[in-house]
């Protein structure tokens, strides 16, 4: 009897979807698939190990290239519809001039791969609503409105798979073109939703996401444009759960919901929020947060979409050091390129990526699949690490070469198992000095941007807390 009761209870519970559903919810609507911490680690693994990816902002704004009616428009290139206050009817004809005949996805992926990047995130749809893939949800897309007339994402996805990179998409929730949203005239142009038409937009969004899964099958879906009064955390939770049901391995950023704390990008602390990683934008957090995944997205100049008047390029030194700084804090670096309407990555970007690649070729081991620095701060640079139970490899990134040739690693009391320059293998001596370890360096740095010293410990990591 007891057994029958238990079985009955179980049966009812399964049918009603207990225990994770509250009364009144549609089954599975906001409940992501159950996942143990180990499952989550497995899902996030490639992303955590990659450390470095390429962001690509491309669309019909690339035709305008930061100019409207012959005059430069301030702000980012992909925001020109807002910056020059262009009505939809005047913006749409840009598509007729979007004909990227020089688009060579194999070359783009090669450029990313040679830079040491392991994934690519491209705009499937930015705030202007224009779709770079073949969608049936609207004719505001590359196939229906441009002389080029072909899906731009599928060939890139194919090339990524061929060359061993992960293919990912960026999709904006804010949509200045969708008939259910009205553009505001305010800064950052948050749209309003027309009364009673939210469902129409979320159906449209889901249909597009399904098309992306069916065609180019991204590994990350990177949402943006979520700072709208009418877009709620619950909406993000629904989309998140719905996507993960369709593709359990999918990784989704925190901008699908309302968690992100402004441009700092990590989640606000007032409640749990949906999303797999935080998204600092144009900044690097002062420190990492143990157990929190995050990715800093940043530009090489001051625009995401191509802008012909933006010549404010960061140096290769800054870009490499940003990558190292981010890795030393346990984050990922998503570095942007804004290809032209012809389909070319600007030469200034290619040059910088190739300089980063040169550094990565010699030093990539100190970035990929490493973990955050075990030190609080290092006066001369940064540290990344690889830790086992009874041994650690420390990668000491020397930005400022010590004039006396003595690299002091404060608080490192572990027995040393040898030191060397990563790029050449040249052996170095390392000795204890009280609670510190001192590595003797050659007179000149190998690479003035960042010379990496590998320090192996013999035995577990032992660091005196400052
Ligand atoms: O796609 C690139 C930019 O076009 C886009 N994000 C990157 C990846 C971007 N959109 N807006 N912005 C960047 C700046 C917007 C900032 C703000 Fe806000 C929106 C300020 C107030 C509303 C961010 C969200 C800070 C608070 C809420």
Brief summary of the model shown:
The protein is α/β, with parallel strands linked by helices and 466 residues long.
Word description of this protein:
There is one protein chain. By secondary structure, the protein is α/β, with parallel strands linked by helices. It has a seven-stranded parallel β-sheet, sandwiched between helices. The relative contact order is 0.11. It is built from twelve helices and 19 strands. The radius of gyration is 25 Å and the shape is globular. Helix content is 27%, strand content 19%. It folds into two domains: 37-366, Glycosidases (TIM Barrel, Alpha-Beta Barrel); 381-457, Immunoglobulin-like. The structure holds ligand H79. Ligand H79 binds next to loops.
């Amino acid at each position: 009897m007891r057994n029958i009761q238990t079985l009955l209870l179980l049966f009812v519970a399964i049918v009603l979807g207990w225990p994770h559903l509250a009364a009144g919810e549609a089954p599975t609507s906001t409940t992501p698939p159950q996942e143990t911490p180990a499952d989550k680690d497995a899902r996030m693994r490639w992303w955590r190990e990659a450390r470095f990816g390429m962001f690509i902002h491309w669309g019909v704004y690339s035709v305008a290239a930061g100019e409207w009616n012959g005059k430069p428009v301030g702000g980012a290139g992909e925001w020109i519809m807002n910056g020059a206050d262009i009505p939809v009817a005047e913006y749409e004809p840009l598509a007729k001039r979007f004909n990227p005949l020089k688009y060579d996805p194999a070359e783009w992926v090669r450029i990313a791969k040679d830079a040491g990047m392991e994934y690519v995130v491209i705009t499937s749809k930015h705030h202007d609503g224009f779709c770079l893939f073949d969608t049936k949800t609207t004719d505001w897309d590359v196939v229906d409105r441009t002389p080029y007339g072909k899906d731009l994402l599928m060939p890139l996805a194919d090339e990524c798979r061929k060359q061993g990179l992960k293919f990912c998409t960026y999709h904006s929730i804010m949509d200045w073109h969708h008939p259910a949203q009205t553009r505001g005239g305010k800064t950052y142009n948050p749209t309003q939703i027309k009364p009673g038409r939210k469902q129409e937009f979320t159906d449209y969004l889901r249909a597009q996401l399904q098309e992306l899964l069916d065609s180019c099958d991204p590994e990350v879906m990177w949402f943006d444009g979520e700072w709208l009064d009418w877009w709620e955390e619950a909406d993000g939770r629904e989309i998140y759960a719905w996507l993960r049901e369709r593709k359990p391995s999918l990784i989704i950023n925190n901008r699908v919901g309302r968690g992100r704390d402004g441009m700092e990008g990590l989640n606000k602390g007032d409640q749990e929020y949906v999303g797999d990683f935080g998204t600092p934008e144009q900044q690097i957090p002062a420190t990492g947060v143990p157990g929190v995944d995050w990715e800093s997205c940043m530009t090489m100049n001051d625009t995401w979409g191509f802008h012909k008047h933006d010549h404010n390029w960061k140096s290769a030194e800054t870009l490499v050091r940003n990558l190292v700084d981010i890795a030393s804090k346990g984050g990922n670096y998503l570095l942007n390129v804004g290809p032209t309407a012809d389909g070319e990555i600007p030469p200034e970007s290619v040059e910088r990526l190739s300089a980063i690649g040169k550094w990565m070729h010699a030093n990539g081991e100190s970035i990929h699949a490493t973990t955050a620095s075990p030190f609080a701060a290092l006066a001369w640079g940064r540290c990344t690490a690889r830790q086992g139970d009874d041994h650690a490899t420390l990668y000491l990134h020397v930005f400022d070469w010590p004039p006396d040739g003595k690299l002091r690693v404060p608080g490192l009391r572990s027995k040393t198992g040898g030191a060397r320059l990563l790029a050449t293998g040249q052996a170095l001596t390392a000795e204890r000095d009280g609670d510190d370890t001192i590595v003797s360096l050659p007179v000149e740095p190998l690479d003035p941007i960042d010379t990496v010293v590998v320090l192996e410990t013999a035995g577990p990591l032992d660091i005196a807390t400052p």
